[in-house]
Amino acid sequence: MTESQANVPTQKRRSAKQVKFLIGGAVVVLIIAYLVLSSMQGATAAYLTVREVKAAAPSDRLVRVSGTVVGDTIDWDAHNVVLRFELADDTGRLLVVYKGVRPDMLRDGATATAEGKMGPDGTFQATQILLKCPSKYEEKATEQATSR
Amino acid sequence: MIAVTLGQWALWIALAIALYGMIASILGARQRVPELVQSGRNAVIAVAALAVVASGSLLYLLLTRNFQVDYVYQHVSTYLPVPYVISAFYAGQEGSLLLWLLFLAVAGAIAVLHRRDWNEDLLPYVGAVVSGVAAFFLLLLVTLSSPFKLLPGNPGEGMGLNPLLENPGMIYHPPTLFIGYAVYTIPFAYAIAALATGRVGSGWVRGIRLWSLFAWLFLGIGILLGAQWAYVELGWGGYWAWDPVENSSLIPWLVGTAFLHSVMVQERRGMFKRWNVLLATLTFALCVFATFVTRSGLIESVHAFQRSPLGYYFLAFLFIVLVATVALAIWRRKELASKREMESFLSREFSLLVTVLGMVGIGLAVLLGTLYPTLAQALSGRELSVGPAFYSRVFTPLGAAVIIVIAICPLLAWGKSSPQRVLRAMLWPGVMAIVFGIALAVAGIRPLYAVLGFAACVFVFTSVLVEFGRGWFARKRMTGESYPVAFLRLVNKNHRRYGGYLVHLAIVILAAGVIGSSVYKTSTTISMRPGEAMQVQGYTLKYAEYTVQPTEAKQRFAVTLDVSKGNRSLGRLTAEKNFHWNVEQWVTEVAIRPGLVEDLYVILSGLETNGLATLEVQTHPMVTWLWIGGGLLFVGTLWAMWPRSEKKRAAGRAE
Under an 8 A CB cutoff, do A24 and B159 touch? Predict the structure, then answer.
């Protein structure tokens, strides 16, 4: 191994010469850190309650609101591909309008999260609807497992 | 019921043996008692054998559909086809942990049986670490998460598998990933052994090369298989959603990539010793973290986490792993000091340092994005989510930087390179990239950053080809062999180098696929009646027929389209959306027509009784490149791992 044959400089000389590489490495780290922190701005969406969403002025900031789907308010217009439904939580009910395909698991009592903005007409303009994923299945399994 | 008893007992005995093996190995090594060391080694092998027995018992119970076993009841039904019964082994938490243990124990046994001169001192500690990690998983398996738990009676029929998991991708994807996770225990065990013995020189890093390549390969292929499963089965029109479970498998792969590269610096230059110890531990810890995220539900919901104490066990285990490594590293700080110093920014060492920082940086960024919602909720009490925008903003510039480094790094010499030489080597790749970039821009390809991204890919691609060509022609000139012979002998002479180049090519192809599919994806929602035809993205879709039909397992809704482009018929596509009775859930079966340029991807969103169908027609450009890149990644890594014959190695040493 050549390692042992390499002439080992004194500790002091090394650190003086190595400073520029430390700075070089630090610059790389700082660039990455800056990218991460700056990207975090505006990429997060806060969870609000129905009342908070309704009280907030229409703005461009994305928010998320979670609640239970009220089954008899689901209005799916297959021809124009517009979905409307009401989302309820402890603080009230919110009419959600979503221009997109009706999610498979949307039904009465399902837990849904809508991401979007409050529109000027008082409806929530959702850009994304998330339903508690295969958990229906998992939930059922846990229900059965625990109620035994 | 004998299989239940057998499995249960195998786990308990294995736990006792693993704990004994850990202590025996450490004592034997410290007091220099060969009998104890031997006994510790036997313990590792015994644990592997018992893990095989326990796994065999569970598999037997699944295959005989013994529904009195809770795990069988929850994941299997009488109607489930046999391949999916086997995949049900790892459909739940208990089975997944058992599979982890199985892979870990088998890898550990192979590791301790692989005795060579260089690792004689290290092996007892390797065995001790393997035993310790196995004991942790065994502890979970006998207490909180037993796959052999019985129900009071036999329900007679099981719940069956989640239909989303009934896809060939789900048979291969989880075990591939788990092999990757579990095998990363071996590099970690060697790192701890190196620290414990103080032999932190290049011996251990050279010895674990195959292990870490093997784990890295399986992890990478596992991630790609998962992406493919999401693409063909989940039916939302994409292969990657930045969800916590996906992210958590990507993070150890990124840090593992950093590890693969930093190891080279220690092998060749005796530097980066601290990095290597740190990265080996970090990669392993992140693999355990990934298992924990997938299985505890920590990230999706803090409440689920509180319900299951499993999370605390994992956190405690990770804490011990990290603290032990740091403490040992501080203890060995003198031995870990570099024997050599960096000489130039324009050196292989520095560019590898940038690679390591970049990969770890991306990994930590993904980790932060994944954990941020949980941390924010714990700290401020407010829930929030981190969207895909975060990841694309971080990934785009860092990914581009990594691609450029991939091109430049292999051109640089160890120690110091002359700028003129590097510039000369970059000439052709640079010219090709600029020509290609201008050609794309003139052809009207936008946005600019995508053009730059493709140009960067061409840059790397050309520079790797130039490297191949340079060696090839030099060999041909020197030996006078024919072109094919010269090429084969060249790539056979240095498996590591040319395997590595192939992997670099694969990464570039993957990167091009990612750019193409994320920038140029289109989605159009249409409604059609039977007999109607529509134009979407240059395709003509004619609504041929629809089916609404109940079967034993599901209510089937299907729409068949005749697809053509111009005058050319592209055949029929059938998109389905089925209601599965057993889970009372809709499952979408998308129709995909794959192509090298783009995939046509049709989702049936809704079908009214009169045949009015709502379809989401998407085009996904260059997704096929991901699968091609994945194949090349596999071939390249295998080539890099392939051992040279003893004769050639001896000849190489004599040179």
Answer: no
